[in-house]
Amino acid sequence: MSKLNKDILYLIFEELLDDSKSLFSCLMVNRLWCETVIPILWRNPWCYGINYNNKNHLFLIIVSYLSNDIKEFLSRQEIQVPTFSYQSLLFDYLSFCKSIHIDVINTIISIGTSLAYNQFILQQEFYNLIIKKCRELKYLDIGSINHQIYYFPEARLRLETLYELRCDTSIDYLYFYGLARLCQYIQRVIINNVNINTNHGIVKLIEVQKNLKYFEWIDDLDECYDIRVDPYKEILLALGKNADTINHLELFFLYSDRTPPKVYPKFHKVKTLIINYFGSLNEEQLKMCIYHDLEVLKIGHYDLNAASIIIENSGRNLKKIYLEFCIYYDYYDNFNEHSHILIRKIHENCPSIKYLSLIFPPSKQHFNEFEILLQMCQNLKSLLLIIFMNKIRNEEKHLEYGEELLKILIRSSHNNLREIRFLYVKFSLESLEEFFEKWRGRPALSIVTCNRIYKEDNYVKLINRYKNNGVIKDFIYESHYNILNMDFKI
């Protein structure tokens, strides 16, 4: 490793972007490593797991860049500032920075002063300084911003290159008008909606984009409102104007939208579609939603029928299907029929599926369809199985259905299967041992469950024996939430 040149080290450190502990440890190896990793760490210095209230390193570094006149003014305001200048630093840290995270910067500023007026002054100086020093601004998280940073010197040059914007709908609409004037090539927009009323500035900002590829909208509303008008209509219509470039669309709406049904079919280039429900679209309107490039589909728990229609029309390239789970399927009209149709549509239309969650009752009809799916979908790597047995109180029946499920897995699953997550499924000690024995010779399998029965001594002994033999890789007891979250890596 000591003989690797700087370019190779840089590529290696790039792979550690999400591993801040390893990146920070690289600083201490030698000068070459330190010089290589500093630009990576300072690209987005606000994103690491640091308690900024207890550490003032970033505050001291940023203040050191301020001119002596500004430092003297701050000192007269009883704001503590360091005595050294940025020329005394080992690196020109801010020149590597490509991001601004307003809430984190405001927290850092609170280290220097607790007075609201003084914090306002520091915010003005910090934002102005960072925009001036950033060679290119790629990421902007404006949070609860109080300053019109688009009026700062050099703001136009920096904001024209903006790649990602994170914001919430509480910010004054005029602020977004200011951004819309400068930022027209944003590729990623992530919005946290905290206001039921339409923010027309955000609508305008979306409308003027010319290369928007990733859009995420998450409702985070504390109250229940009596909705008289569609709170999402203008947002969706603005997104429709960007439909030719959007490939990731993520919408979490707490209220049913009444947007014209012609909007959803426009997103014909989408590769990732995450949506909790399709508003008031009927079956005929859903059939117009054809997404030939779709690779990831995540859909809400009350839209099994919508999922089936989308999969039938767009399923050939699907690699991941995730259905959000709901405990109230007893109140879902036609749940048995729709869950059965969904399994069939998947094995008929998704030959490339790798990651899949399925929700169905333990009927013979569903088990037969599930077995066909295992036989047809040979690329399947990870499987989440939720066998809905709310109305079944007989313990023997639970174990009987669990045994049948394991037999199907042995008979029909392919060797690509590496992970199975079970929810509401129980296995007897005997059926589990038979399953492990028959799995022998295949690639080691990881199993995840939240049932505490598998923490009992007799199960633990059995599981450890087959782990030691290499039949299974892991048998993990996890929280209900982590099992359902297929992005959670075990």
Relative helix content: 25-40%
CATH fold description of the domain at 299-304 and 318-490: Leucine-rich repeat, LRR (right-handed beta-alpha superhelix)
**Number of strand elements:** 14
Biggest pleated-sheet summary: 14 strands, parallel
In CATH, what is the homologous superfamily of the domain at 299-304 and 318-490?
Answer: Ribonuclease Inhibitor
Q: Name the structural class.
A: alpha/beta
Mean pLDDT: 86
Shape type:
globular
Protein name: F-box domain-containing protein
InterPro entries: LRR_dom_sf
What does this structure look like?
By secondary structure, the chain is α/β, with parallel strands linked by helices. Among the domains are: 41 residues; 179 residues, Ribonuclease Inhibitor (Leucine-rich repeat, LRR (right-handed beta-alpha superhelix)), CATH 3.80.10. The protein is built from 19 helices and 14 strands. The protein has a 14-stranded parallel sheet with strand order 1-2-3-4-5-6-7-8-9-10-11-12-13-14. Helix 1 packs across helix 3, helix 10 packs parallel to helix 11 and helix 13 packs parallel to helix 14. The protein is globular. The two termini are 29 Å apart. This is F-box domain-containing protein. InterPro entries: LRR_dom_sf (IPR032675).
Which helices and strands occur, and which strands form pairs?
Layout (H helix, E strand, L loop, with lengths): L5 H9 L5 H7 L4 H11 L15 H8 L3 H9 L22 E3 H11 L3 H18 L5 E3 L13 H5 L4 E5 L4 H10 L5 E6 L6 H8 L6 E6 L13 H8 L7 E5 L19 E4 L7 H4 L9 E4 L4 H11 L5 E4 L11 H15 L5 E6 L3 H13 L5 E6 L7 H18 L6 E5 L5 H11 L5 E5 L7 H12 L3 E6 L2 H5 L6
Parallel strand pairs: 1-2, 2-3, 3-4, 4-5, 5-6, 6-7, 7-8, 8-9, 9-10, 10-11, 11-12, 12-13, 13-14
Helix pairs in contact: 1-3, 2-3, 6-7, 9-10, 10-11, 13-14, 14-15, 15-16, 16-17, 17-18
